[in-house]
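[User]
If only I could read backbone structure tokens as easily as an amino acid sequence. I have put the entry right below:
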Amino acid sequence: MINKSNIKRFTQAVVLAVLVSIVSSTQAAVTLVSNLANGPSEQDSFYTGRSLYQSFSTGSEAATIQGFKFSFGYVGTPTTIGVSVYSDISGGVGSSLGSFTAVDPSSLGSWSSSVDFTGSLGVNANSSYWVVLSATGGFDGDGNYLWMEQNYVSITSDPVQTGITGWTLANSHWNGNHLDSAPGGFGEYAGDPIMVEITGAPVPEPSAACLLGLGLGALALVRRRSRA
């Protein structure tokens, strides 16, 4: 004779396993888009008053961005490096939405190092954003430019990208200050995107959310019957 108590325990275990699988699959970090596997064509510099801007677009699902990875060359010392995400307004740079912090700041002083920046920022589906590299340092107290305070990041002329379908990096980058309207104050380098990898977790699709709800409901029903 089949033991009803064992059936209930088995059903509970199956439901829990399904729930864990759903939650794990929808929250696991993946590469959203990357061109880091490409060879660098050259490098561009940024310092106080001169930032670097890379536009990117999301796919058909909303997501939570959890990190950026860049390929740095020389990094001036002392200096600070900032990585932020900005909104896009009609193809232009909008307002700051969030910042990301270097996992190992000491690695910024190394030549040709890949550096991870982590944080958390939700982004919408089918939308464009800008990742911005900024820095302090570059001038002395008298306003004289110090070349050794420049910070270099790799760019590539190779258009190949990997990642989730729909996520893309614009095939260009900009440098300067996006608020500077003077001629030459903010310029585009077409065909030379910054080398970057964006990682994160896609937001669960409605179908996954429904399965999660059904699983929770089934688990509650099993528990209710087991008490009867």
